[in-house]
Amino acid sequence: MEQCSSLGKTALLIAMAEGELIDTYAASARDKGFAVTYGKVGSMDIQKIIAAIETAARREGLVDERYRSQHALYHAILDALQGLGRGQIQLGNVLRTVGLRFSIVIGPRTLKDTDDLWLAVGMYGMIGAPIKGHEHEVCGLGINHL
Amino acid sequence: MEQCSSLGKTALLIAMAEGELIDTYAASARDKGFAVTYGKVGSMDIQKIIAAIETAARREGLVDERYRSQHALYHAILDALQGLGRGQIQLGNVLRTVGLRFSIVIGPRTLKDTDDLWLAVGMYGMIGAPIKGHEHEVCGLGINHL
Amino acid sequence: MEQCSSLGKTALLIAMAEGELIDTYAASARDKGFAVTYGKVGSMDIQKIIAAIETAARREGLVDERYRSQHALYHAILDALQGLGRGQIQLGNVLRTVGLRFSIVIGPRTLKDTDDLWLAVGMYGMIGAPIKGHEHEVCGLGINHL
Amino acid sequence: MEQCSSLGKTALLIAMAEGELIDTYAASARDKGFAVTYGKVGSMDIQKIIAAIETAARREGLVDERYRSQHALYHAILDALQGLGRGQIQLGNVLRTVGLRFSIVIGPRTLKDTDDLWLAVGMYGMIGAPIKGHEHEVCGLGINHL
Amino acid sequence: MEQCSSLGKTALLIAMAEGELIDTYAASARDKGFAVTYGKVGSMDIQKIIAAIETAARREGLVDERYRSQHALYHAILDALQGLGRGQIQLGNVLRTVGLRFSIVIGPRTLKDTDDLWLAVGMYGMIGAPIKGHEHEVCGLGINHL
Amino acid sequence: MEQCSSLGKTALLIAMAEGELIDTYAASARDKGFAVTYGKVGSMDIQKIIAAIETAARREGLVDERYRSQHALYHAILDALQGLGRGQIQLGNVLRTVGLRFSIVIGPRTLKDTDDLWLAVGMYGMIGAPIKGHEHEVCGLGINHL
Ligand SMILES: [Mg+2]
Ligand SMILES: [Mg+2]
Ligand SMILES: [Mg+2]
Ligand SMILES: [Mg+2]
Ligand SMILES: [Mg+2]
Ligand SMILES: [Mg+2]
Q1: Angle at F107 between CA F104 and CA F109, to 5 degrees
Q2: Are the beta carbons of A120 and A8 closer than 8 angstroms?
Q3: Which candidate, A4, A28, A11, A33, places its Cα nearest to that of A107?
Q4: Structure confidence at residue D117 as a pLDDT band (50, 70, 90)
Q5: A single Gene Ontology molecular function, please (chains A, B, C, D, E, F) (predicted)?
Q6: Residues forming a β-bridge with D127
Q7: pLDDT above 80 for D103
């Protein structure tokens, strides 16, 4: 994580981190100038995943009350959900459920070129049937200009 | 990477690693019992990306000559490409190009339950217009039973 | 609208018209020989939008009780919904809502060639988050042979 | 059916058979070494169709309790549903309903090469509006390695 | 085939038939009042498959020179291709190839209700990597009002 | 057009206008404070349509050389292309061609709330088989924050 200087990788590494590493990674990213938040959500409803991420972003001040920042976030979430759903942005409707860790990171696309703000949404977790252990990993990354 | 005990995260971390870390991560994953290969590909043609990954897997012996292992790999690649393309599995046709690092990892879904073989394809890189610097990060993960 | 001689543009202009212009446009289209109806619907459920359009068409006699005319209408609606949903034909499931004005127009594809009946569905409105003002315009057009 | 030596055609012919032919076809397929089950399901919910097929497969022992066989079945079902939905894997959400006969067949891809196990899901039935007679035929076939 | 009284099943059975059965099935369908043609096509290009089917339909007089009948055929082909492609209507672009038998059948949806003309396109064949034997079965059915 | 105070409708009306009305509409929109350009493109290649629109926007100064404005434009084009393609963002690959008029409009979403910049891409034209007269109307609208 120390060498990580790009927005999307930062988002993915935080979403994939476990235990104490999560806070360590987030702190490291903040030190470099990224704004960061993260959280967890498990659901069979896509709209609950979107709502959890939007709520986290708003609560932590990563997006403001203006529509344009929320529009940027919404479409970054939809893009990340394409990696999650791989063909259909549906969960319960196609009899599957997901347990996710997500992150939202705001900053330049890379620390080499810091005069522009972008937004990344990272997702990492397990997707599968509603049967214990019947699941495999899944991830998603969405990037948008802010 | 030391703590990483799952197939998909292993594939993603290797695809996202840079410089000497790539070999270090691959070696660490092999020590745990995963079969691993990785490579790079840049193209405006989806079929060249698929071919590069299939060729790497075959050359390194991760899939054999039987159709079933190549079928498993093909669909894992397609799944990973959904995260990459986010809605269309197309590049040059929609005037975009990609520079990727990819990995293929074979092993159990998690080291806690080693009696079953699965396959993960990880992709990480830059997607964008065919103009220098006009690009952002992208990733994909596909998982299939072997 | 006076110069408009094609089916799809007629449908779009009526769907996009406001206030008294709606009736004026519809009357102008009927004078040229098009059958026209229109209406409004707001919902987070795609099926309610489909039902509202199908009901309007049936009530105004634009489609009859035979399945073939309703099949033509249904697929024209689905096509228009692709422009609305841009990738997913989903609303509430992906945490968005829509307020639409729609039109159904039946006639030749163009007044220059009147010996064939086609059907157009036009949609125009606002799509966005379930938060006041957090929305932008959206449109859709579906055309089918009758 | 006597000449049928391939997995997918076997699945389709059983799903399309009527009356006594269903059992005759299934018996003929079993004589050749295929494992077969079949059933009926009508619904506006995709998840009920998936559940009906998964339940039939499990009850008849075509898949065991391990995730890998259920993963193979799940993705074969999703593939077959693409033929059914033709663009959206949705039913009630887009105001349509389906009445299906389905089959699950396990065996080699073809009797000429019997050293490998694959799985086929066949679907055949009627799709349409929730109005009697307003429907047309639909089919789907999904094939996966087991 | 003798008992087959519906448009779509007729199309599928002809597309799936082999050897002399093809002509026998087509003749049986014509005796019942269906117009029928069929053919073969192998390609990595979706447009060649569409062209082969459109050419067969035109040559055999199943569609006339008017756009409406060709529009009906085109969208039935696209629908059938959804079953074939299962998520992407692409072949060579995603490094796969197809060998198909197809049929076009025109008539009522069912012989019980003969006062309406519909069109069915059936497809059956093998899809896979451009490596001998690395392929599995695939099918598609598209139905449209004429 | 006089009453038109919103970004997307402005884009659609300009794309749908004919003859002298095009310039009149564009001038009216510019008077209200919108930045506007428009053009024509006919092609069987999606990438040529994207390139034509991007080139027009750059030449007229609607987007600058920074990636963020070109990213906003690119995704607005892709969104508009969903209305055009209705399920597949493909033309020649699925044996169809398009003749389009397009517009790019920059400004507030509505004149009532002018403190924010958005971008709209409107498309209107004919889509069909590569046979004269075998085509019907099509439209698309994409909106993005700038
Ligand atoms: Mg939007
Ligand atoms: Mg396959
Ligand atoms: Mg239909
Ligand atoms: Mg899976
Ligand atoms: Mg059409
Ligand atoms: Mg982008």
Answers
A1: 105
A2: yes
A3: A33
A4: very high
A5: RNA binding
A6: D98, D136
A7: yes
Give counts: helices (H), strands (E), chain B: 4, 4
The C-alpha atoms of residue B25 and residue B15 are separated, in whole angstroms, by: 10
Q: What is the DSSP string of D11-80?
A: HHHHHH--THHHHHHHHHHHHTT-EEEEEEEEES-HHHHHHHHHHHHHHTTSS-SSHHHHHHHHHHHHHH
Instruction: Please count the helices (runs of H) and the strands (runs of E) in chain A.
Output: 4, 4
pLDDT band for position D114 (cuts 50, 70, 90): confident
Q: Is the CB of residue D86 less than 8 Å from the CB of residue E83?
A: yes
CB atoms within 10 A of CB B29: 23
Residue B71 is classified by DSSP as H
Find chain F residues with C-beta within 8 A of A66's C-beta. 116
Alpha carbon distance D138, E3 (integer Å):
18
CB proximity list for B84: less than 8 A, separation 6 or greater: A83, B98, B100, B123, B127, B138, B139, B140
> E118, C72: Cβ pair inside 8 Å?
no
List C-alpha distances in Å: E93 to B48, B84, C103, E130. Answer: 9, 15, 38, 12
Q: How far is E84 from chain D (nearest CA, A)?
A: 7
Query: Closest by alpha carbon to F72, among F10, F142, F134, F128?
Result: F142
The verdict on a CB contact (< 8 Å) between D134 and C90 is no
Q: How does F67-99 read in b/e, with b if 16+ C-beta sit within 10 Å?
A: bbbbbbbbbbbbbbbbbbbbbbbbbbbbbbbbe
- Identify the closest residue of chain B to E92 by CA–CA distance: B47
Which residue in chain F is spatially nearest to A71 when comparing CA positions? F145
Q: Is the Cα dihedral E14, E16, E22, E24 positive or negative?
A: negative
The residues pairing with F103 across neighbouring beta strands, listed in sequence order, are F38, F122
Q: Which residues contact B6 (CB under 8 A, 6 or more apart)?
A: A137, B109, B110, B111
Return the sign of the alpha-carbon dihedral for residues C64, C143, F17, F116.
Answer: positive
Pair B90, B117: CB distance under 8 Å: no
> E37 near E22, Cβ under 8 Å?
no
Q: Which two tokens mark B32?
A: 């745990």
pLDDT digits (tens, 9 = 90+) for A94-126: 999 999 999 999 999 999 988 889 999 999 999
Q: What DSSP designation does C113 have?
A: B
DSSP 8-state code for residue B64: -
CB E67 to CB F133 under 8 A? yes
Residues 6+ apart with CB under 8 A from C43: C49, C52, C91, C97, C98
Q: How far does residue D129's CA lie from ligand 3's centre (Å)?
A: 9
| Torsion, Cα of D31, D37, D39, D43 (10° steps) | -140
pLDDT digits (tens, 9 = 90+) for B93-126: 999 999 999 999 999 999 998 888 999 999 999 9
The secondary structure of residue F113, as a DSSP letter, is: B
The residues of chain F scoring below 70 in pLDDT are none
Angle CA(E47)–CA(E50)–CA(E56) in degrees, nearest 5?
A: 135
pLDDT at res. F66: 92
Q: How far is Cα C63 from Cα C41, in angstroms, rounded to an integer?
A: 19
Exposed/middle/buried for E5, CB within 10 Å: 0-12, 13-18, 19+?
Answer: middle
For position E146, what pLDDT does the model report? Answer: 93
Residue segments in chain C with a per-residue pLDDT below the cut of 70: none
Enclosing H/E stretch for C75:
helix C67-85
Residues in chain C within 8 Å Cβ distance of D95: 46-47, 50-51, 54, 74
pLDDT band at E3 (very low <50, low <70, confident <90, very high): confident
- Which domains does chain B possess? 7-145 (3.40.1510.10)
Tell me the nearest-neighbour CA distance from B47 into chain E, angstroms: 5
**Distance in angstroms (rounded) separating the CA atoms of residues E129 and E134:** 6
